Structures are given as C-alpha cells and as structure tokens.
Amino acid sequence: MSRLPSNATLEIDRLDALLHRALVFNHIDDAVIVMTTEGVISDWNAGAERIFGWLREEVLGATPEILLDPADAPALLRRLLETVQSEGKWADVFAFVRKDGTTGRCGAVSVPLLDGAGEMLGILSVQTEVVDEEAVAPTKVVEPVSAGVPAASLTDERFLLRALIDAVPDPIFCKDREGRYLVSNLADQHAFASRGDEHIGKTVFEIPGLDKFAAQYHADDMRVIRTGTPVINREEPFERPDGTPGWFLTSKFPIRDAAGEIIGLAGIARDITEMKRATEELQEARKRLADHVENSPLAVIEWDPEFRVIRWAGQSTAIFGWSAEEAIGKTFSDWAFVHPDDQAKVKEIGVRLTDGRDHRNVSQNRNLTKAGRVLHCVWQNSVLHDNAGRTTSILSLVQDITDRVAAEQTGRKTAVERRLLERKLQESQKLESLGVLAGGIAHDFNNLLTGVLGNASLARMDLPAESPVQPYLSQIEVSATRAADLCKQMLAYSGKGQFVVKNLDLNALIVDTTRLLEVSISKRAVLKFHLADGLPVVLGDATQLRQVIMNLVINASEAVGDKSGFISITSGMTRADRAYLAGSFFAPDLPEGDYVFLEVADNGGGMSQEILAKIFDPFFTTKFTGRGLGLAAVLGIVRGHKGALKVFSEESWGTTFKILLPCAEGVPEAMIEQTTGSAGWRGEGQVLVVDDEETVRVTTARMIEACGFTTRLAPDGREGVEEFRAANGDFALVVLDLTMPHMDGEEAFRAIRDLKPDARVLLMSGFNEQEAITRFAGKGLAGFLQKPFAFPALREKLQEIMA
Q: 206-211, long-range: CB within 8 Å, 24+ apart, which pairs?
C-alpha cells in the first residue's frame, strides 16, 4: 500500500475540510473517492465502504492501487492521473478487488477539483459497481470547471461542492423551506431535459414530469422540513420527457444552519425504472414458478446441505401427510419418513450428492406416510449451486408409484392363482348360463301349467261336489301347484324371482317366518335371536325372502342333527366396501355402501372346502337326492334382490350364512294382501285375449267366459292390435301376454293405447311382476297376473279391474 508523502499533509487537510461540508457526500450510494494530484486518497464515502469493503480510516493516505490487480495497478493509476490533468476527465470500466479478495467491475468517472483561479487541487472520482459493461457507459460528461471563473463570484468551498454533485450520476437537489429548488445537478437536469438552472426558484408543481405527482412530493418535503426526520429510499413516480412513466428511489434529509435551525432540505434520487420493471418481471416469474411448483403433480422437496427440509411444496402434503410446518427443518433421521429397510440406501444417496460424486440421480425406495402407510416412490434428486460453485441445496421431485408397483405385483401372480381366477370365472359363467336356461324353462312350464290349473278349475266348477271325479281333479291341482312352486324356485335361481316388491321390515319377516319353523326344526337346536333395532327397510318380495330364511334355518337344523346345538339368527346394518364385497359369492358389481344383513349360524358339523365350492350348484346335496334347488335358489333370490351372500364354514365348527341386502327408504308395508273377492261375482262385456300359446289362450278365454264375459282371441300381438282396431276398441278389457313373436306385449300395449288411450289392459307373464311394472311404469297398466294361475285368482283380478 502506497503512503502519502509527508510534504502533502497540508493539502489533504485542506481538501478534507472542504469536502466534509458537502451534505450529500455520505448519502450517495455510489463510491465517491477524493484524491490528491499525486493520486493519494484523502476521502472515501460510505458508498465506497459498501462496494469495496475497506473502511474510510483504513484507506486514508493510501492510493487506489489497493483496489487493483498488482500487475495492472501502476499503469492504470498513471493513466488516470495523466488523463485528468491533460484532458480534464477520465471515464473507463475496470476490474477491482475487494478487501475480502472477491472481485467485481466498476464504471468510473474522474474529474479535476479546481479552485477559483483554475488551479487543480485534487481529483474527484465517482464509481458505480456494474455487471453489464454496456450499462455503465457514461451518459453525461462532467467538464472541469473553467479556470476563467472569477474568484470573487464563488468561494472555493461552493465551487468544489458543485463539482462533486455534478459528478454524481444520480439526480441531486436542494430546496428551501417553501420547497423551491436552490440546487439541481446535471443528472437532475438531464432526467427532465432541462437546461442550466431552469429548476432554480421553482417548486415541483411547476416542473413538467413532476407536476402530476407534486402533491406527494411536496408533502414529503414539508414533513422533512417540519419534523427534521429524513425520508429514506421512498419510491416516487415521475414522467420522462417523452411521456413514458418512470420511478425514482429518493432520500431526503434536512439542511441545518450553524445554529441547528432547519433552513431547507437536500435530496438524492436514483432512476430505478428498469430495475423496478425487472423486479416486477422477476416477481411475476417467481409467482408463476411458485404456482407451477404448488400445482405440480409431484412432491417438491428441497434440502439444505445437511439434509434438513427447507421447502415442502407441490403434492408433498397430499402424498406423505405432513404439513409444511411439520416437515420444514427436519432431517431424515428426525421423523419416520424412510422405510427402515431402505435407510442405508437413502443415506448413501445423500452422501454421494453432498460430496460431489453425484450432481443428480434417480432412485426408487419406500417411504412412510404420517399415518404409517408404506409408499413406493421414485426420487429425482439434483444438486443446486451458487455462482461460486458451492452447494446451496438439493432439490427432490418425488412421484408416488405405489399403485403401479401393486399392479406389477398383481401381474406377477403364479400360474396356480391365475387358474383359480379362471375357474371362478368359469363357475360364474356356468351359473349364469344355467340361470338363463332355468328362467326359460320356468317361463314355458308356467304357460303349460296355466292350461292345467285353468282346465282343472273349470272342470271342478262344472261337476257337482259329490262327483267321483272331484278327488282326481283336486290331485291334479295339487300337483300343478307343486310344479308351479318348482318353477318359482327356477325363476329364483335365475335371479328373476321377485314378484311382489315392497318396503319390508326384515326383523318382522324373520320373526314371522321362524314362528312357523319352530315345530319343524330339530328339538335339540336352540333358536337364538340377536335382532338390531331401528334397521332401515329393504326393498324385496316377502315370499321369496321368507323362502331364504326357511332354507337357511332348515339347513342349520339338519347340520346340528341329533346333538345339542344352537341356531343363531342375527340382523343388523354394515358398511360394505369393495374388498368386503369382493369376498361375496357372484357379487362383483355391487356398489359400496350401507347394507342390512341377515346372519344364520349353527355349531353343526361344518363343511370342507370341496363341499363349500359346490353348495350353490343346482340340485347338489349332501343328504338324500331329490331335494330341489335349495341353496341355488337362495343365491338366485339374493342376486335378484341386488344383494350379496357370504359363507363361513369349518369342519367340526359349524357354518355361518350372511345375506346382505341394500338399504331402502320409506316405511314398511304389509307383507300379506287382504283379498276381498267374491266367489259369485260376474261381469259383462267383451274381452280380447292375446297369447301365442294356444292352451293358455283357450283356457284363459274359458275362465273369463265363466265370469260372464264374451271373448275374442288373437295368437300374437300384431293380430291382437288388428282385432282391437277392427272392433273400434269396443272391448271391456284386453288380456295381453308379455312375451310373444312378431309383436311382444309391450309394443302391442303401446299400439292399443294409441288407438284408445283409456283402454284397460291386464298383463300376463311367466316372469316376475317387478320386471313388468318397471317396463310399464306410468303407462296406465290396469293390472298384472302371474302365470300359472287358477280360476279364483283370475276372477279376483277381473273383479278388481272392473270395479
């Protein structure tokens, strides 16, 4: 470090005394350096301390060589001194070295300091730290003060102060107590394209570019003058000469006289328009980036070099469960975040990132959520550096692939598991096919039985009660009724066995059914009831559900056999999810939700897995043969009610059947209809009978005629409509089969109602009433008659319709 020659001490003291009276000296953000003509530093403002790192006391008496590369310093300082002395100014961009050894670049403007006689007393240098060299090209040239200025017009002190403030590239001004301009430097004049002292004596209300915002400026001025409190770094708007908006960052502070009285104010401003625009763009970019991060489909986690969480964004909370407040500041070891079996692997990954071996890597490992759930995650880790190449943080983008891993594991099922799935599918398809076959057979048998029952009823009516034929006809009716019951079981097995659907109280149905069974079950079996109160109603057919209860209780009784045991009947409500329903028999598509359940359990002999796999096959039994459809019908009835069936059984420990039925809304309805038919009732008028089965068509017509009506017959829907049209709809009633060729009952019904909107139609079908009601809902159907039917049932329905 070069030191001041002893013979220059007097000159330094003189410059120091002059320049320290300049009120703006330490309020300028740029570096302001005052040197002697030999290049020795005589003063150094706060801006220079901030930029270069040296305190004023440390540099006084040194030369600017302390700021330069030792190899370049002598030549650069010599060029500066010579240029200022010969040309009156020196402007350049140079590299500098801070006190801490870091480097930077400055744009500098240096001018001579002259006394009133034009003799150079020293050098004033204003230096601005820059990054972009183009941004520091001098925008104004500060000329040295002419030596021809008369010494009487200016004192040395005022002259040096003016040279200082005109050398500063930021606007500097002074105002009196009324806010009138006293001083305006070259930068201030340049900002508003004014010349010379145009601002002097004016207020902000009179200066173009400031007048639009004058009220705000003036209020700040008066506050400084009134209170003596400076205004520091206030953002203030202005308008450029070309009309574009701009912004100043302004500081104002009071000027006091020797007695301490405030006589005005001084201010310095910096044009921050481009910086403010760049800052706003940066803030907008940061906001967009933050939005992208927060809305990322991945978890975004940032760690410091010690692997403490410093950012927890994106889907981090959604995936792992911890909030940002809970996670930030924690390390891997602070909370259960990594699966214990993967901790060694994760630690090695972290070490490789922090010691420089890896700048980025991808890994798959297991993590734990806040709730303890195990996740499979893919981690993409990248090391972030600062400008000096030091590691600042590690950024992790995390994707939850648990579902994908589970799917891959499922896809790797063994051949045995796949065969089991295929077997279950085959069994389901087999039962579905048998169901379709059973339904079709039941429909055709119902048509045949309608003829048998109808003709037997008519024959019994025509014969006297004491006729020897009566017992035979009665036996025919009994056999036909038993055959009709078998058809109902076949329909139940096919899932089409709901006939009279109502809102039912399951508990009432259980009590009513078991009361009839108490005399039929084993005397050694004790019935135990556990019926929950307040159950929702279920939508179902009381007769079919009663059949389910009877079959299950009788099966349980036979399982108990001759030993002492129990039969437990339980009801309640449960919430069934997808996993629970998946374990039911043939119920893959049932929705999750609330179900009312019926559970029948016994402590009998139980079943092996081989027998359990066959219990729903038609006509399969472990007892004697000829037992009917049994549990196959139970399963069909449950399926027809959109329910589920689960079975739990173990040899020597007993069996439990659990039926799930969907909850319905409403109140229970009566389970048994009260009939009011009269055996002697007769009607009148013509009835059109339409059915493709001749036996059914003829027998039905005979029974209708026996009630006092006349009949016309049609073999299918199309001819039935033609008969109706030919008679101009003059029929008291149309009896219409649902399933026919050419034109089915639904199409024929629509055509008849088109011809006569108030025509009364009674529908017949071998399928269930619920299907018919659904298809004809709101269309004015007069009634429904289930095949097969006997004469009394037909007469009762006719009386109901014609009443």
A: 208/239, 208/241, 209/238, 209/239, 209/240, 209/241, 210/238, 210/239
For residue 601, the SS3 value is strand
Q: Are 640 and 495 in contact (CB under 8 A)?
A: yes
The residue whose two tokens read 């975004």 is 300
Query: Taking the model in full, what pTM does it have?
Result: 0.36
pLDDT in tens, 134-157: 433 333 333 333 333 333 333 345
- Contact status, residue 568 vs residue 601, Cβ threshold 8 Å: yes
Tokens of 571: 């009801």
* Spatial separation of the C-alpha atoms in residues 499 and 219, rounded to whole Å: 91
| DSSP per-residue letters across 288-315 | HHHHHHHT-SSEEEEE-TT-BEEEEEET
**How far is Cα 781 from Cα 802, in angstroms, rounded to an integer?**
13
Which residues, at least 6 apart from 759, have a Cβ–Cβ distance to it below 8 Å?
724, 729, 731, 734, 752, 753
Q: Kindly report the CA angle at 263 between 257 and 267, in degrees rounded to 5?
A: 105
Q: Are strands 733-737 and 686-690 parallel, antiparallel or unpaired?
A: parallel
Contacts of 173 (CB under 8 A, 6+ apart): 181, 183, 184, 185, 188, 199, 266, 267, 269
Question: How far apart (Å, rounded) are the C-alpha atoms in residues 346 and 376?
Answer: 13
Left (φ > 0), alpha (ψ -120 to 50) or beta: where does 385 sit? beta
**What are the DSSP calls for 151-168, one per residue?**
TTTS-HHHHHHHHHHHHS
Return the pLDDT at 89. 82
Residue showing tokens 């008519």: 458
Comparing CA positions, the residue from 19, 21, 28 lying closest to residue 172 is 28
pLDDT of residue 17: 40
| Percent of the chain predicted with pLDDT > 90 | 20
> How many Å apart are CA 728 and CA 66, to the nearest integer?
122
Residues 616-627: pLDDT tens digits? Answer: 766 566 654 434
What is d(CA 456, CA 189) in angstroms, rounded to the nearest whole number?
Answer: 124
Residue 300 structure tokens: 């975004």
End-to-end CA distance of the chain: 127
Q: What is the pLDDT of residue 658?
A: 93
Could you give the 3-state DSSP secondary structure of residue 112?
strand
Q: Determine the longest span between alpha carbons in the chain, in angstroms.
A: 162
Looking at the DSSP bridge assignments, the partners of residue 95 are 105
Q: Which two tokens stand for residue 275?
A: 């910086």
**Are 327 and 316 within 8 A, CB to CB?**
yes
Give the separation between CA 172 and CA 164, rounded to whole angstroms: 10
Res 223: pLDDT: 92
Q: What are phi and psi of 436, to 5 degrees?
A: -60, -40
Determine phi and psi for 746, rounding to 5 degrees. Answer: -65, -45
- Round to whole Å and give the CA distance between 489 and 439: 10
Length of the chain: 803
Residue 555 CA: distances (Å) to CA of 265, 374, 491, 638, 659: 107, 45, 21, 17, 15
Q: How far is CA 198 from the centre of its chain?
A: 65
Q: What is the pLDDT of residue 713?
A: 94
* C-alpha to C-alpha distances, 378 to 46, 308, 347, nearest whole angstrom: 53, 20, 16
pLDDT in tens, 671-684: 655 444 556 788 89
40: left (phi over 0), alpha (psi -120 to 50) or beta: beta
Report residue 750: phi and psi, to 5°.
-65, -45
Report d(CA 215, CA 221) in Å as an integer. Answer: 10
